[in-house]
Structure formats: structure tokens, C-alpha cells
Amino acid sequence: MDKRIDLPSIHILGTRVHMAELPDVVSLMDHWIETERDHYHHVVNTGMHGVMEGRKDPAFQKVLNSAELIAPDGILALLTARIRGYRLNRKETGPDLLWRFSEIAHRKNYSYFFYGDTPETLEILSTNVAREFPSIRLTGYHSPPFRELTPEEDQAIVDTINRVAPDVLWVGLGMPKQEQWISDHRDRLDVTIAVGAGASFKFLSGTMKRAPVLIRNVGLEWLWRLISEPKRVWRRVFVDAPQYIALVALQLSGLRKYS
């Protein structure tokens, strides 16, 4: 039985978001590996950024809505959920998922493959995971070139992943690229779960410093990232976030509806 039926969801600007906390996501992933190894499952952790990307691009919104699980991430998504009556307490966010699920993967000898980011980041990440969770089977990692792949290169990557058939494929290409890649390869990959890992690879490898716990707990990690990566996130903070707030307010008031 698909455990998705136990998770309520809301629609935010046309994107379905499940009311899931980190333990729910971890439990569901474990359930899928235990009972549905022959099915491909796409897990998304996103908030305002992903929702706004979906609003701008209906084709990408369709990608998000086709995922088996979209867990809310970020203060604005959590506030939207709370306004709708769901008291989510997500002090642990998307970047914590890899580490928290690894506690189960270690006990059950699950297998991983890392795809995305740089060779240096992936090497450090793999070393850190192997040291902390030695029973996880690390079947490999691959850093694609920072350009569009040729069909031959893309197929070679698919073949590499399928040869080891990992339980979990962690994809760190950044939103929205990683979600699009996971969706585009849905019918070609022999994996049980593909997870959009976002900046998790950088945080867990130590190549990027994450906000202190206190800052994360009060919902200000976005400010830390703005200071740390202004060129990367300024548009999300100064353009997308105000638009998100205004559009969600219109949706919640009933003045604007989304299918």
C-alpha cells in the first residue's frame, strides 16, 4: 500500500505540497525501499523557490506535481502551511534529510549513489558518509560537466548508475535543474528513490558553511545564505519572496484561484 494516502497536502499557487515533517519523509523512503523496490520514487524538498519556479513554468510545475512526495522547506512554505491549519515543526530542513536518512540506511545496509556538484565535493562527501555510516553501501558518484550533456554522455551516466542500481540516488544539481533531471530520467533509471539534494552535498562535505542551528531554528537561514551567496540567492529574496507572499495572500483570501 502506498503510504502517500496518510499524508495530507495543500496546493500553493498550483503546486501540491505534502504536509510532511522530516521523520515522515525518512519513514516513507524506508517504506518504499522495503516494499516497493521495483518502483521509481521522486522526493522533492522545496518551499517558496520551487513553488515560484513552478508558477513561472507550467511544464516544471507538472514535474513537481508528478513527484511522489514534495515536502515543504523554508520559512515561507511552513508559514503557509500553518495558516492552512497544519502545525509543522521542521527545525530540520531539506539539507538534513541525507544525514537523517543515513542513520536508517546504515542500520539496513542500503546503497547510495551521488550525482552532481564537483568531484572534490563528492569525494569529501563520500568520505564523510563512509566514516559516519560505514554500513551504507556507497556504490559510486559522478560529477557531470557544467554544460549540456551530449546524448552519448547522458546515456553513459545512466548506464553507470544502473550497473549498481542504488536504493537511493541523491541528485545535487540545484533547483530546478535537479528535479527536471530526475523527472526526465524516470523511465531509464534503475533506482528505488531519487532525491533532489540541493545544497546538501556542499553542506555535508564542508565546502560551504551552513547557518548556525540557532539561526536555522528561527527561520533565518535565508538571510545567512543571502550574506554567504548574494549572487546566487538575491533574486529569491528580493523578487520571488515578495511575489510569493502577495500571490499566496490573494489565494488564501479567495481573490485568486489556482488549478
Structure in words:
- The chain is of the alpha/beta class and 259 residues long.
- The chain has one domain: Rossmann fold (3-Layer(aba) Sandwich), CATH 3.40.50.
- The protein has twelve helices and eight strands.
- It has helices at 22-35, 48-56, 58-66, 75-83, 94-108, 119-132, 151-164, 177-184, 200-205, 213-217, 221-228, 230-253; strands at residues 9-12, 15-18, 41-46, 69-72, 111-116, 137-142, 168-172, 193-196.
- Strands 4-3-8-7-5-6 form a six-stranded parallel sheet, sandwiched between helices.
- Strand 7 (168-172), helix 8 (177-184) and strand 8 form a beta-alpha-beta unit.
- Helix 1 packs across helix 5 and helix 11 runs antiparallel to helix 12.
- The longest helix is centred in the last third of the chain and has 24 residues, at 230-253.
- The relative contact order is 0.15.
- The mean pLDDT is 91.
